[in-house]
Each structure stands twice: as C-alpha cells, then as structure tokens.
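Long-time lurker, finally posting.

We've been working with Pyridoxal-dependent decarboxylase domain-containing protein 1 (Neodrepanis coruscans) and I want a structural starting point before designing mutants. I don't trust myself to interpret raw outputs, so I'm hoping someone here can both generate the structure tokens and explain anything notable. Sequence follows.
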Amino acid sequence: RKVEEENEKKYARKDIPGPLQGRWFLFSLPSGQDMVSILQLVQNLMHGEEEEETPQSYRLQNVGEQGHMALLGHSLAAYISVLDRERLRKLTTRILSDTTLWLCRLFRYENGSAYYHEDDREGLLKICRLVIHSRYEDYTTEGFHVLCSKQPVIYISSAARTGLGQALCSQLGLPLSCMCRVPCNTMFGSQHQMDVALLDRVIKDDVESGKLPLLLVANAGTPGAGHTDKLGRLKELCEQHNMWLHVEGVNLATLALGYVSSSVLAATKCDSMTLTLGSWLGLPAVPAVTLYRHEDPSLSLAAGLTSSQPVEKLRALPLWLSLQYLGHDGIVERIKHASQLSQRLLENLKNLDFIKTSVEDELSSPVVVFKFSQEYSKRDQTSHAAQASTIQHPIISNERHIYDTFNQWLGEQLAQLVPASGVDVVELEDEGTCVRFSPLLTSAVLGTEIQDIDQLVDCLKMKIPVLTSTLQLREEFEQEVRRTVGLLYIEDLGWPGLGVVRYNYHSDEKNDDKQEKELEKINTELLKKLNELESDLTFSLGPEFGGQKNCVYIGMVTEDLDVSELVETIAATGREIEENSRLLENMTEVVRKGIQEAQLQLQKANEERLLEEGLLRQIPVVGSVLNWFSPFQVSPKGRTFNLTAGSLESTESTYVSKAQGTGTTPPPTPTSSLAKQKLPGQKAFRRSLRSSDGFSETSSISHCDDLEKMDQRPPALSPGHEQGPLETEKTEEQKEVAQAQTDTEDIHRDQSPPDCTKVEEEASQR
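Top reply, 14 upvotes:
Generated this for you. Predicted structure of Pyridoxal-dependent decarboxylase domain-containing protein 1:
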C-alpha cells in the first residue's frame, strides 16, 4: 500500500504543470502563495512580456468611472453569490427586473423579456431554439425525428455578418441546407437591403416543397454599410407566413433618441432584437441583451432564455450598475454624440471631389461609408442628385481592383494618421473596398471628438491629390517602361502606387539559378541606389507576402513627377550596375588567367636560372663556398600584372627606375549620364517650374541689365572655381539673349539720329 501511495504521488506531481511543480507544489506548501505574489504574476503577464516584445508605446484602454462601475459589477456578483438562497433570490430578481424594465423603456420595446449573454450570437441561438420548440410540439420528446418530417428554414440577408449562418447551423445541429441567404436589391432601393419580393417568392417555394419557414434575421444597420432593411414590410411578410422576425444592428441604438427614422422605428414591432450596449456606451465587459416577446415561460426555460439558477441572473449586475451611473440623459447623450460625429463627417465629405459616399439617410445615418472614385466629382453632382445614395458606374474589373487597392491604402493611412477617429476598411459586395466610420462602435471607447473629425477631413484633403496624380500617371509610367529597353513592367493590381518595374538582365548563362541570383543582385543594388537619391518617392521590395520577386515597387507620387526622367534614371542606373558587374566578372577571369600565366613564366625562369648557375652551386655546402669565391651575378626577374591592359609585364623597369610605373590611364567608370541638372534644393524627378516661353519685348530692360552685369564679370574663371549647375543651365540662354540684344542694338544704331556733340567735336578738330 505504501508503494502504491508513493507511485500515485509521483504521478500526480508529474501531471501538475506550471508554478505548482517543484518548490511551488501545492502539497509541499500548504499555505500557497500570498496575494502580493499572485498579483505581481498577473501584472507581469499583462505588461512584462508585451513591453519586451513590442518596444513601442503600449497602454490599456482608458476606462472611465462608468467603466469602473461595470468592472465592479463582476466582483460584486461573486460576493453576492455567497449570500443565503432566499436573500440571493430576492436580490437577483430585483436586479433582473429593473434592468429589463429600463432597457425596454429606453429602446421603446414594450412588454418584453430580456436574456443577457456574453457572445452576441448566443441570443439569436436561444431564439432559434425557442422558435423550434414553439413550431414543433413534439421536439422535446422526439428530437430530430420531428425535424425530418418538415425541414426548418432560417432566412438571413446576404449582407449579414460573415459566418452567422454556419454558426447557427453548427450550434443547432442542423444541416447547412436549412440556412437560406436572401439576396439584396439589384434594381431599386439600397443595394444593401434585403429584396422583399424575392424573399416572398423563396418562402412560397419552400412551403410548396414541404419545408417549414421558421425565422427571419433582418438588419437595422448592416455590418458593412449600416443600412436598414424594410422592417415594416418584412414584419407583414412574417405574419403572413407565421415566421419569427429577429432584428440586430447598430442602428437600434438610435431608438433611444428623441427623433427616430421610420425605418428603424419599425424594429419595435419585431419579435426579438439584440442590443450590444458595451460598444455603444463604451462599457467594458458588459453583456449583450436580447429582448423578446413570448407568452409561454416554459418554452423560454426549455430554450435557455430563462434560468432557475439565481447566479445566472447576476449577469445583469454590471449593466444594472452602469445604467444607474449614466442615467437616461447620459445614455442619450452618448448615442446623440455619435450621431453628430457622423453628420459632421458627412457634411464635409459632400464638399470634396472624387469622394463617393454610401449612406442610407443623410439626415440621421449613424454610419458613413465613403470611397475614392475618380469618376465621381462635384461637377456632375447635379446629374446624380436624383439617383439613389449608392451610385454604380460601369468599371472594368482591372480598374475596380485598382480602386480597391487605393481605397485600402487610403483607409489604412487615415486610421494611422487619426487613430482617434476609429475608421476602418470594409469590403462591400457592390462598391468594393470602402472606408467606414461607425462612431457608435468606436467613439465611446476611443473618445472621438469633433476636432478629430476635422483632422480626418484635413488628412483626406491631402491624400486625394496624391491618389488622383498616382492614378493618372500609372498609365504613362507603364508606357514609358514598355518603351525603354532593359526594363520590364510588372502588372500588380494589388500595389497602391505608381507601379512595379524590374531591370531585365540578359545573360548567355544557361544556368537558371545563377541567372536568377544575378537578377536579384542587380535589382537589389538598383533599389539601394534609387533610395540614395534625394527624392520624395518611396522605393521598396513590395509587400511582405504576395509580391513579385526581384522588382522595384514605386509608391504614391505627386502631380509634378517627371515620369520620363524617372524611367530613364532607373534604366541608366540598372545599366551602370550591370556594366560594373560584368566588368568585375571579366576582371576576375583576367586576373585568374594572369596568375596562371605568371606561375608558368616564373617556373620557366627558375629552370633557366638553374641551368645558368650550374649543378655545383645547387649542392648545399659546395654551392655556398663556390658562391663565396665566385659570386654569380643575376638580375631579379619578376612579373607584374597590369589590370588596365590585362597582361603580364616584366619588373626589370621597376628595379632599374626604383619606382613602379603607372601604366595607361584606366577607362572611366560608366555612370548615369541621363540625370538632369537640378536647381539647388530641388528634389529628383520633379518637373522644372521655370518657364520656357520666348522673351517678350517688355522684358528687354531686365535682359539688358543682365547683359551689363555679365560684361562686368571677369572673362576667365579662377582655377579653383567650378561651374555650378545653375550657371550651366543659363549659358545657352545668355548666348541667345546676347545675340538678340546685339542685333537689336545694330538696328537701333542704324535708325538713330546723329549725335550733336560728336559733330561739334569733329568740326573743332578740323
């Protein structure tokens, strides 16, 4: 028995992980760890490792007093749970009833019940189980056999959040065939609203095929664009087919305001709705709430919407505390502030060219979605005013892909420059990639203010010219690269910039690996050379994943970019690197052959020296004595390798003159001669702002003054003086001006009257 107990202890100690092993083993330390050590361990886990891995500034979310109240609710729930059963029952009933009543009054949902849950999809899942129990009477006893007789069908919009249908089928144990995605409008109305007429036909077809329409999930604010379905018509359709209508979305928050749009107000007549108060009010760790109406409490208990356990009812305690702290005015003020932020941004976007907005209601839309589109400007706004909020243009697939890439870059830049705005990038089915501003989801947490919106608009104004210029110069850059010998244009629609180019290295080498390495070496060196230039352009190797290899990626540009000069510089720099590489390879081969030839000549010279000295001089002792009596005079014969000529030469001249000859002058290193002279302080690849028009008659005086100043200069430059780039550019102009001025003076001299003073002097001399 002792052996078995020891084995059990060893086995138990081996299986317990982490701090409980060894000296921290629980049974070896009956007192455990103290509170300070445990809290220090938690603090290290929260901050220590992250600060080491990410040296940039890291901070937790700014939690205000209302956030502390919500966090306090979790601690109080743990303390309250230890009360005696009767007192606990009374307290939890009071908390649950108060919170449910406040929420129903606040969001205009009369005679409703509430279910509090951590996952925002859990409420819809419980509602589905409630509807199944209601429509299938024998479901409690028969189970899935009842579902086989009539297959249930759940309808969701194609604009619903991703993965919602799969999650419901997985949790309910239903096949994916029970989930029906309803398309949105294609001809009339918003492109993000459910097509009611099509839904009616689909439901009728399912009924005729023996299926049972069960539930419809509608949106009061789609996850992408924030549009609201026609809830009034959908409610009528659900009543006609005895279906349950569930509504979710961010626009449900506006039910707490004094003015509510009719489309959102129709949500108060639905069978159930899900509210996510945590993001709307900036409350951390508060549960989501599903409000519903149902008369049978037993079915609600069977579906899990209610619980007989008092501890389960304590989920509402954080929300109960937070709602009391904020009060009705505080809750309405936060939601109203988010709506005002959306209206402020929407008003500013209306005055910007090349920005297309997609909002459902310009007067009260809490979500603003916009994108950069060169086809849409305020010049043709009058022709678009009568159309719907979403405007469709016939854009080919490549152009749409380019616009998606540019809008992805725009959204990332705005989010980085103004992080307090909370903008993000969304993918919409019809519009493509867009930038979304949804303050109801972010403003309470980030503390977004009006000045943040103004800063966001200012940043957007700075980015629009860059996007427009880059989009216009992309085609010109492609044409220039295709016309230039030695460059290869790489089409990458996913790159937000001017384009992608590769220096095409041609070699007779049949080894593909060696040629690939040489190509990589040249383009890497080309990228390094381009980054060394003083320019505003960004050159890189492209994205980390999915980009082309051995290419130079050029980022966003401005309108004053000289595309031809940029392409010429890239080609010239690539040729320079290639020539230097080939010169180095040729020099390496020449040096190798020269060394081999020098070794052969030196070996031959040694053999000749042995023949001249004789055999006796090679004997160690005899040779020393013989050399002492009769020294053998021989001139040293070495070899020198001329890198310029690539040939071996004798060193006799070096020993005679006591100095090493310089040889011929090496050829100049190939350089990029296509680089243009720039004015002082002017960046590379910029168009010169100096006008090239002819000289006007009104500017003749200033030209004469310039000529007089030129005549006063010394005729020759000092030896140490170097001609600057500005003087080089002015030389040709000054010659033309001087010649024109000389011709003008000759004409005036011929037509001018005689000088009286000169005539009198000539007369006096006579």
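Before you design anything, note these points.
The mean pLDDT is 78.
The chain has 26 helices and 17 strands.
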